[in-house]
Specification:
There is one protein chain. By secondary structure, this protein is mostly helical. Helix content is about 85%, strand content about 0%. The protein contains 18 helices and no strands.
């Protein structure tokens, strides 16, 4: 078990570094530059569109990735036909959904931005799924290299943006360079070009699990970007920018740390028989300490980060920093716990918990935002994430006791 824990820590650090590089480039180089060259209102629109792209990418590509990872031990090679079939179908559905959402949220953007966002999202779905081939063999060095290529794509895109002002092209180039690296280092291209993909009988269990995870991940990812998707129509795009800046430091660290849950899922799906009641209790204690330390550290760092990168919005944003950091830290705790629940419990629990969580968050978010504005949204977020964390821990504890 010690050897497994050592490998887990090493791969977690690699994954944190991989995401850290990409997040730092995006959050502290790309987005501040876009912000400085656009109005507060238009920047809020851009943030909302990026959120739509990320939600769709994770719901379809991320769900398919996790299904393949969870089923890897019991699969035969012909199962790849089902995954490629689902990948193509997912992209088609995703693009239809994205076009509809862009009509709702992206009325201010230009026609070529529509084009780049649509193409970027399709490539992003393939990238989100394709990294499973690294996760199956626990090769997180290649995840790191892929994210370096994505970061280079952002930096190249910045040069284009500085000359032509096309912000959407930065996101396209980032996904494109990652996609090229993915095709060169995985069997994905060979599987996609195989002529038998759509003729073989499809694995119903894989499709069923995929639908369950999509249901779950729709709720999870909408909640992640709920500040943009709900605040935009309820409180306006300016409020989107204010809350984004208020939660910037917390969400940046959250995005960097959350991929640890992906590493945990890789290991727990492989070594789930070693998860004992004692181990799970220690996990609960570690998560509690992470939340407390997270809140303290974020409250110290946030004012400095906000004043440096978003000086024009800092005064308005600092009012909400402490509440936002509590919510984000509780969310990180739930995200660390979630892979254990996913690997040891029936997959149906994932969608049940997230539907409950999402319904509660949406209900409280709408109610309290209309009463107290952004303060109300923050309070709704804290209540919802805390209850989700408690429910996940309770389910895990009860499941381990029955085994």
């Amino acid at each position: 078990m010690r050897k497994v824990i050592k490998l887990l820590v090493n791969d977690s650090l690699l994954n944190i570094l991989a995401n850290g590089i990409l997040v730092v480039v995006l959050q502290f180089i790309v987005l501040p530059i876009i912000s400085h060259n656009t109005s507060v209102e238009f920047f809020g629109t851009i943030l909302t569109i990026i959120a739509l792209k990320n939600v769709i990418m994770q719901v379809f590509g991320g769900s398919l990735n996790n299904v393949k990872l969870l089923n890897n031990k019991k699969e035969i090679s012909s199962s790849d036909d089902t995954y490629i079939f689902l990948l193509f179908i997912s992209i088609c559905f995703a693009e239809v959904i994205l076009i509809f959402l862009l009509m709702l949220y992206g009325s201010e953007i230009k026609l070529y931005d529509y084009f780049y966002i649509i193409i970027t999202t399709a490539v992003a779905i393939v990238n989100a799924y394709g990294t499973v081939y690294y996760r199956i063999i626990l090769n997180y060095r290649k995840v790191l290299l892929m994210h370096i290529f994505c970061s280079i794509g952002f930096l190249i895109g910045l040069l284009v943006f500085s000359h032509y002002g096309v912000w959407s092209l930065m996101f396209f180039l980032s996904e494109l360079l990652g996609f090229i690296y993915l095709l060169l280092t995985t069997p994905l291209l060979k599987l996609i070009t195989s002529s038998r993909n759509f003729r073989h009988k499809k694995n119903i269990d894989i499709i069923s699990n995929y639908i369950y995870l999509i249901t779950s991940n729709v709720i999870t990812n909408i909640i992640i970007y709920f500040d943009r998707l709900l605040i935009n129509p309820v409180l306006g795009v300016k409020a989107v920018t204010i809350f984004y800046v208020a939660s910037l430091t917390g969400k940046t660290l959250s995005i960097i740390v959350t991929p640890v849950s992906g590493v945990l899922l890789s290991y727990t799906s492989k070594y789930k028989e070693k998860i004992t009641r004692k181990y799970f209790k220690y996990l609960g204690l570690y998560i509690f300490l992470i939340i407390i330390i997270g809140v303290i550290v974020l409250n110290i760092l946030s004012p400095f980060v906000i004043k440096i990168f978003y000086p024009n919005t800092a005064e308005s944003a600092l009012e909400y920093v402490k509440l936002a950091n509590i919510s984000i830290s509780l969310g990180v705790g739930g995200n660390i716990l979630n892979p254990f629940i996913l690997s040891i419990c029936d997959i149906k629990w994932q969608s049940r918990v997230n539907i409950f969580y999402g319904t509660m968050f949406i209900g409280l978010g709408l109610l309290l935002s209309n009463i107290w504005g952004l303060y109300g949204f923050c309070i709704a977020s804290i209540i919802s994430t805390f209850i989700r964390l408690m429910v996940l821990y309770l389910i895990g504890s009860l499941t381990i006791k029955t085994h």
